Amino acid sequence: MNNKKYIALFFFLLFGHSCAYATLLERADGTMLYDTDLDITWLADANYSMTSGVDSDGRMDWFESNTWASNLDFGGFSDWRLPETIQPDSNCSFHNSQVDAGYNCIASEMGHLFYVDLGGSANSPLPTQTLFSNFQLENYWSGTTVAPSDPDNSWYFNFGSGWQGGQLQTPYSFYALAVRNGDVVSVPLPPTIFLLGLGIAMLARANKVRSRVSPLKTNNRTPGPVNAGC
User: Which residues contact 109 (CB under 8 A, 6 or more apart)?
Assistant: First the structure.
C-alpha cells in the first residue's frame, strides 16, 4: 500500500469514525447510552420501572416518577433523574409568553433524543431503532415544571408524535426515562487524537517498508511481495 492509500485510509478513519461520536455511544454492554452532544447518559431500558418490578406497567404520576428516578441505583450510579426541558426554545412550533411547546423542541433532553439522536420527525412516531429497549410511543415525564408560576404542571414528551407539552402532575400517569449528567467511563484520549496518532504511525510504517525494498535487483530473483501488515 503506497503513501496515498495510507493517507486516504487515515482520513476515512478520522472523519468517518468521528460521525459515530456525534450522537449516542453504547456504555456498559449497551445498558447505558452516552450522548456526546449534551454530555448526559441515558438508561437504555426506556421502561425500566416496569422491568425492575417497581411498577406493574411503568406508568406513574409525576411525583412517583421523580421518586423512582432519584432512588434508582444502576451501574454503580445513584444520581439518576428525569430529563430536563429547557425554556425558552425557539425551535418549537408553538410560542406563548415565553412558554415554548409543540413539535421540534430540540433544546429539551427528550426532544434532542427524539429529533437529533434517533432521527424522529414531527407528528410521526419514534423510528425503529435498536439502541433502546421497551420504548413506549406515548408520553414521558420531564422533571421540569412548566413555569415557576405554574408549579402544578410539568412538561412531558410524546415519543409517538414528537410533541412537547405540559400536564397536571397528578392524577395523570406517564412513563419515565432515567438519565444522569456526564459519561460513565473515563476516555484517556479524544477519538480524533487517537486517530491522528494512528495515521502518523501508519505513514511511518509505509515509509519504513518502502526503504527496505531496493528498486534494483540484487540477484537473479525478483523480490517477493513485502508484508506491510502490523
Answer: 38, 40, 83, 84, 85, 86, 142, 179
What's the pTM value of the predicted model, to 2 decimals?
0.73
Give the total number of structural domains in the chain: 2
List the domain range (segments joined by +) for residue 7. 3-17+190-212
pLDDT digits (tens, 9 = 90+) for 152-207: 999 999 999 999 999 999 999 999 999 999 999 854 444 554 555 555 555 555 55
Residues 10 and 88 in one domain: no
Contacts of 202 (CB under 8 A, 6+ apart): 6, 9, 10
DSSP string of 159-197, one letter each residue: TTTTEEEEEESSS--BB---EEES-SS--SS-HHHHHHH
What are the cell numbers at 158? 410524546
Same domain membership, residue 175 and residue 195:
no
Residue type, 122: A
In angstroms, the CA 177 to CA 98 distance is: 26
Classify residue 224: in a domain, yes or no. Answer: no
